[in-house]
Specification:
single chain; 250 residues; mainly alpha; two-stranded parallel ribbon; 8 helices; YhhQ
Length: 250
């Protein structure tokens, strides 16, 4: 499998692949972590708007929604192709990267600026992070990604590897649902300017939009999964996998 040559795809139990090297796994991990970090740095702080012709108005949305759902697509691909244990390792890598990014942002923002440097206020606006939102985001990411991976792995067994679309969409509905249910109440419930009704409205809207992205990207998911399975030569099933999130062994 390390050669990455295309060949027949064989169904295997995830436990039989312990310690196996896969040609594309490291690239998938790097892509997942990069999207997690960049969507938080570049997308989370901007509110954009889109014109809705049917309603004849602009509709605001968080810019991060354009790219953050891609992490769930990659999470689906990782679990589908490489199994839950390797997806779990990638989720912990992403969580660790987010933790370090939050710490680094705090340190850099708090460093006293040189007198001739006049951009501190702008820097604080972009990179200054409210501790409550940082904690909410990390907790939601951790729980949502693990739910997504768990549901997909279990559904793959139930469906006997058929109907990939049902697994990717079903796991995203569950994972993004947990993500939204944790993030928005933790981050904004009782905050100034946020009524309970507004929190629930934004929660449901963002959840629907993220799941809709997953549906639209289903052809891409099929193409990537098919390519990786052919190149790696395996179709992994988590029949006897230990689904605890508190492990890193593969």
């Amino acid at each position: 499998m390390s050669e990455g040559q295309e060949g027949p795809i064989r169904a295997v139990d995830a436990r039989a692949l312990a310690g196996t090297h896969f040609r594309y796994f490291d690239f998938m991990m790097a892509a997942f972590v990069a999207i997690i970090l960049l969507s938080n740095v570049l997308g989370a702080g901007k509110v954009a708007q889109v014109w809705l012709p049917g309603l004849d108005r602009y509709w605001p949305f968080g810019a991060g929604i354009l790219f953050f759902p891609v992490s769930y697509v990659l999470g689906d691909v990782l679990t589908e192709v490489y199994g839950y244990a390797r997806a779990r390792r990638v989720i912990w890598a992403g969580f660790g990267a987010l933790l370090f990014m939050a710490f680094m942002s705090w340190v850099v923002v708090e460093l006293p600026p040189a007198p001739e440097w006049k951009n501190q206020a702008a820097y604080e606006t972009i990179f200054g992070q409210v501790p409550r939102i940082v904690f909410s985001s990390m907790a939601a990411f951790w729980a949502g990604e693990f739910v997504n991976s768990f549901v997909l792995a279990k559904m793959k067994i139930w469906t006997k590897g058929r109907h990939l679309w049902s697994r990717t969409i079903g796991s995203t509905i569950a994972g993004e649902g947990v993500d939204s249910l944790i993030f928005y109440p933790l981050a904004f419930w009782g905050a100034e300017g946020w009524t309970p009704d507004l929190v629930l409205k934004v929660l449901v809207t963002q959840w629907v939009l993220k799941v809709s992205w997953e549906v639209l990207l289903t052809p891409v998911t099929y193409a990537v999964v098919g390519f990786l399975k052919r190149r790696e030569g395996v179709d992994v099933f988590d029949e006897g996998t230990n689904f605890t999130p508190f492990a890193a062994r593969v």
